Amino acid sequence: MKLFEDKISSAASRVRIALALKGLDVERETIGILGADAINRKPEYLQVNPQGLVPALLTDEGALLTQSLAIIEYLDERYPDPPLLPEKREDRAFARAVALAIAADIHPLLPPRVTTQLGAMGVGPEEVADWSRHWIRVGLTAVEELLVRRQAGRYSVGDTPTVADICLFPQAINAERNSFSLGQWPRVAAIVARLREIPAFADNGPVPRR
User: Fold this and answer.
1) Could you tell me the pTM of the whole model?
2) Cα dihedral sign for 51, 120, 35, 203?
3) Residue 100 CB neighbours (<10 A)
């Protein structure tokens, strides 16, 4: 398999964490998504992924998979040990809900293509930063409330990391880099502290933007 990624991408971080939890080693190609290094919008990569986004995963069978959550579920179905979704139906639904609250509700408002477009529309750097902080605050506050209502286990859903934690960890790292203290979200902070002790998470978080 081959993973197309950029180390700064929290979406790519999710897939790296999933691969590490599964003990899978894949070929990797960096697809820059920022500034002079950005090649994700160039024709050669658009031939790979028409969306021009990372991550993308080329399977051993030659299928090109896009969207981090779709890739993670593919990996979980093909390599079921350890499972990334809980056993109980309600728990699986909750794990997916937390993952989507981050991947579908917070993340789409924050990536470089959004902030670049805001700048192109005349929005100043401080206003762009305020935009990002606003949606991180709103999003993680909602996730915190969802997690508090469950009050079960060491991680987001029980005592084993799931897809919910795979999405939560990179978003929490990015929140810290946007000058947030995770302490304002105690349940999130406690879960992330435990995830930092797991090499698959600690070694595969998003790197700072250059």
Assistant:
1) 0.95
2) negative
3) 15
Name residue 156's amino acid.
S
* Residue numbers of the domain that contains 133: 89-198
Q: 77-135 pLDDT, tens per residue?
A: 999 999 999 999 999 999 999 999 999 999 999 998 899 899 999 999 999 999 999 99
* Closest residue by Cα to residue 144 from 185, 92, 103: 185
Name the nearest CA neighbour of 87 among 24, 173, 160: 160
Sheet of strand 64-66: strand arrangement? 27-30, 2-5, 56-58, 64-66
Q: Is 51 helix (H, G, I), strand (E, B) or coil?
A: coil
Is 21 part of any domain? yes
Q: Give the CATH number, domain containing residue 50.
A: 3.40.30.10
Of 78, 104, 133, which residue is a domain's last?
78
